[in-house]
């Protein structure tokens, strides 16, 4: 009976983690470039139950009896949330008419043969610690020194890996990512391509990084890959790809599943209470 406690408790913990993930998705429904997370649920290995009982006798001089253990069946021991993986589907574009807003629109992106999923293009940025990061959030701005930055202060990098400094927000971005100011080429936006974005690690503020230990510490340039076709649109931002209606439905399902596991746990608790207080009563 105690195994039922653990199975129901694992179900409650899983739904709690799933609800937290869905709540985070909902909270970022209006965050530019945000990619919704999807939960990956797995079951614990099943146990095979066998009954131990005395078997038949073997005709020997001293009368040998061997135990037998017929199989009863398998028992599932619960479920757990293995991880939350971001979905890199293209978000809708919203026009803002701000020259510092730039949206990445994937047009023709190769599909990875191993995973069967499409690759993704990213803006290349540099965080406050000087590390290379990647993002889909093109809601840029100019800091006091004229550098093109993200709202959290991260620098937007060029194809040369350098921060982009401008004199004002009166600049234009060509389709090939080249930034023009006063009809002069300033820099080319650093656009990277990841063939396996699911292998990247998600950080806060819409940042992604490569997992430690990978052979190539940085992503290759998207311009160098002839199979990658994308568009850069100035005056637009990519909206979050969170489906609010579906997320609300998933949250309600998670709540109901949590309550169902809770009721199972309460039923086990009442059964144990009855066993302790009534079955062993004397007189």
Automatic annotation (TrEMBL):
Its domain of life?
Bacteria
Annotated Flagellar basal-body/hook protein C-terminal domain ranges read 233-276
Q: Which UniProt keywords apply?
A: Bacterial flagellum, Cell projection, Cilium, Flagellum
Q: Which SUPFAM superfamilies match?
A: Flagellar hook protein flgE
Name all Flagellar hook protein FlgE/F/G-like D1 domain ranges: 118-179
Q: Name one GO biological process term.
A: bacterial-type flagellum-dependent swarming motility
Sorted alphabetically, which Pfam families does this protein's record hold? Flg_bb_rod, Flg_bbr_C, LlgE_F_G_D1
Where, per UniProt, does this protein localize? Answer: Bacterial flagellum basal body
Alphabetical GO CC annotations of the entry are: bacterial-type flagellum basal body
PROSITE patterns assigned:
FLAGELLA_BB_ROD
Please list the residue ranges annotated as the Flagellar basal body rod protein N-terminal domain: 5-35
The protein's matches in NCBIfam families, at most eight in alphabetical order, are given as: FlgEFG_subfam (TIGR03506)
Q: Which family does the UniProt entry place this protein in?
A: Belongs to the flagella basal body rod proteins family.
Q: Could you tell me what this protein is called?
A: Flagellar hook-basal body protein
Native species of this protein? Mangrovibacillus cuniculi
